[in-house]
Design goal:
This protein is mainly α and about 325 residues long. Helices cover about 75% and strands about 0% of the residues.
Amino acid sequence: METFEDRLQYYRQIINEKLPQVVNKTEPVSFYEPVRYILDGGGKRIRPILLMLACGSVGGRIDSSIEAAVAIELLHNFTLVHDDIMDHDDLRRNKVTVHKKWDEATAILAGDGLVALAYHYLLQTKSNDIREIGKIFTDGIIQLCEGQALDKEFENRFDIDLTQYMSMIEKKTARLLMISAEIGAIVGGGTMTERLLLREFARELGCAFQIQDDLLDMSKTSGKTFASDILRKKKTFLFVHALNNASETDKKIIKKIYRQPQVSQTDVATISHTFSKTGTLEFARQEVEMRLNKTEQLAAQLKSSPAKDDLLSLLPMILNRNF
């Protein structure tokens, strides 16, 4: 009997088989080799699978959404390449990042090429609403750039509240999921109500995803480096909540630590203790649960279908990182 995991593997296989076909040229090598390297890097294919399931959940044929799903995966990989450059990361999915393997100029060019290739595939989507699809895709890229810009601005600021932080992660993290869900609904012939339901579903999922990621950073059993966000002085959901709810003395200590060139293990312990004192960890867990409940309520309003059931089954897998 086919299981949910079997279907996920099938959808992932569709994307994995399509990606090598994206690049059918070899010259110039300095452009196409890095692009192939990026697309060979693996990944969970969360966004294209979300797009295909959104299509199916409104009664559409999933195979009609494949070109758009490939476009979303190409766009996602573009964001990763440019994020790695901006964050000075050396590894991505246990592979050397493009700008480290080649150089920054090569990585920027490869990322730009992925955006063009994404549009190439998106425009192959068979839909009477291709202009609307193109608008959502383009507006989404602008929002992604705004989110990345805000994230960079926050690096040198301490006057950030949770409303501002959530606005940033909605643009930077949730937006690509929102694009995926709404385009999937359009390709599937969904109504405006269904489009808005799925877009909101993806927004709540994306925000919960980021907060859960911040929480996992403070877990010693998550498989991640413990407190890596603190060591890198990242302004996370946890940091923003703690800073806005700590005593004046603790606020001064936190700011002093984050202004230092490096964060020590003693500093990590100090900030971790502040997270406990301010109730930050519990508040974040409640926020994730609240948003997850919202996604379930939104999905419940869709017509019954196997794809809708798969959307609901996808939620805990994404949030628990076992997908």
